[in-house]
């Protein structure tokens, strides 16, 4: 999408964060295509519902969220369900970073000020986005970020969602308008392909094309270490080794909350990097993206207290899938991840495709590995 025509509309794209979320921000925009339906709301540019057929042909809700959109506005603490995360996703140590010799101190909102999570106290998830366009198969939201939470400069962000046969495509774009600034956007959708959050995803099969993860400390802030996980410990697979299809339970007891670094060179094209299969419904989701990494969180902190349109979420009752850059890369120049964008430079662009179909129900990891090996021949 061209930036120049949009600049004329800047006065109309003013971001809103008010104590009471407006009814317009909670209006649903419903899209449909062959084998898939979805709905979105402007508050957080958020995915509210996603329905696909299971192996028996029954339509299933696979996205976690609230049945009533008012639930997002009424949250006492952010769930981030289905929202766009920005200006910088995941964690930044101490809420500080330096760009061109200038140190910025942004709002901290986790662990008594030890880090910034998902853009700060009021991130993109808690903002009222504008609707730029909408039709039966696509909707585009926009947000004018006037230095929110202490980030340098102004940024124009766009979130486009579109449906085609069995596929949801998200395109997140951000333009630095007047100063160099770090940008790292993602979507924070939680899924349960079994459509039942009272049951866990532990028997589902996960395949991630990544042999390394970002090492983190006790509060999940990156340490700078990159951990190799594709090997074995004696006869045991590393619990984070999903380079071949494996049961999600392999990551027990702690579960997953890790940034997987894909095994592919730059420049990055939109290619398949993750596959997830439900043992209960036969629904398969394949994720194709241009991003260099993906955060996978298996809802280990859920305790049955959170109510969603799929019911109360039990521990390991879902997984969040977040295609993005290397987390806290702005604090680790040794990684050589350029996450700073400047006026006049190419914009930040995050493309992700979620492709849904069905496979044999109940097929375990071994059968899936054999099928994957045949497909790769």
TrEMBL record:
It comes from the Eukaryota. Keywords: Carbohydrate metabolism, Isomerase, Signal. GO terms for biological process: galactose catabolic process via UDP-galactose, Leloir pathway; glucose metabolic process. CDD domains: galactose_mutarotase_like. One of its GO terms (molecular function) is carbohydrate binding. Residues 1-15 form the signal peptide. Gene3D superfamilies: 2.70.98.10. It holds the Pfam family Aldose_epim. InterPro entries: Aldose_1/G6P_1-epimerase, Gal_mutarotase_sf_dom, Galactose_mutarotase-like, GH-type_carb-bd. The keyword Glycosyltransferase does not apply. PANTHER family: 1-EPIMERASE, PUTATIVE (AFU_ORTHOLOGUE AFUA_3G13240)-RELATED (PTHR10091:SF6), ALDOSE-1-EPIMERASE (PTHR10091). Belongs to the aldose epimerase family. This is Galactose mutarotase-like protein.
């Amino acid at each position: 999408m061209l930036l120049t025509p949009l600049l004329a509309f800047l006065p109309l794209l003013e971001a809103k964060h008010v104590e009471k979320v407006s009814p317009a921000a909670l209006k649903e925009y419903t899209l449909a295509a062959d084998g898939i339906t979805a709905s979105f709301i402007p508050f957080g540019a958020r995915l509210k519902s996603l329905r696909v057929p299971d192996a028996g042909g029954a339509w299933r809700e696979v996205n976690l969220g609230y049945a009533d959109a008012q639930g997002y506005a009424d949250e006492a603490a952010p769930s981030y369900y289905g929202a766009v995360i920005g200006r910088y996703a995941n964690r930044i140590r101490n809420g500080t970073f330096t760009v061109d010799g200038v140190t910025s101190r942004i709002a901290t909102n986790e662990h008594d000020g030890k880090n910034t999570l998902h853009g700060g106290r009021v991130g993109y998830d808690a903002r009222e986005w504008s609707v730029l366009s909408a039709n039966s198969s696509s909707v585009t939201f926009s947000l004018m970020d006037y230095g929110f939470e202490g980030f340098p400069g102004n940024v124009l962000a766009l979130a486009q969602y579109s449906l085609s046969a069995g596929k949801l495509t998200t395109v997140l774009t951000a333009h630095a308008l007047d100063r160099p600034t770090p940008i790292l956007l993602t979507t924070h959708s939680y899924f349960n392909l079994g459509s039942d959050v009272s049951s866990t995803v532990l028997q589902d099969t996960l395949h991630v094309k990544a042999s390394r993860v970002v090492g983190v400390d006790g509060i999940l802030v990156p340490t700078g270490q990159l951990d190799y996980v594709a090997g074995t410990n004696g006869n045991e697979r590393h619990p984070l080794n999903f380079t071949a299809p494996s049961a999600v339970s392999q990551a027990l007891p702690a579960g997953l909350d890790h940034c997987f670094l894909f095994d592919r060179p730059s420049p990055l094209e939109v290619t398949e990097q993750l596959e997830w299969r439900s043992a209960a419904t036969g629904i398969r989701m394949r994720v194709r993206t241009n991003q260099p990494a993906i955060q996978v969180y298996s809802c280990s902190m859920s305790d049955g207290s959170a109510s969603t349109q799929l019911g109360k979420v039990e521990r390991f009752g879902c997984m969040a899938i977040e295609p993005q850059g290397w987390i806290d890369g702005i604090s680790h120049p040794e990684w050589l991840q350029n996450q700073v964008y400047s006026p006049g430079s190419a914009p930040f662009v995050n493309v992700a495709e979620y492709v849904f179909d069905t496979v044999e129900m109940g097929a375990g990891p071994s059968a899936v590995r054999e099928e994957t090996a045949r497909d790769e021949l």
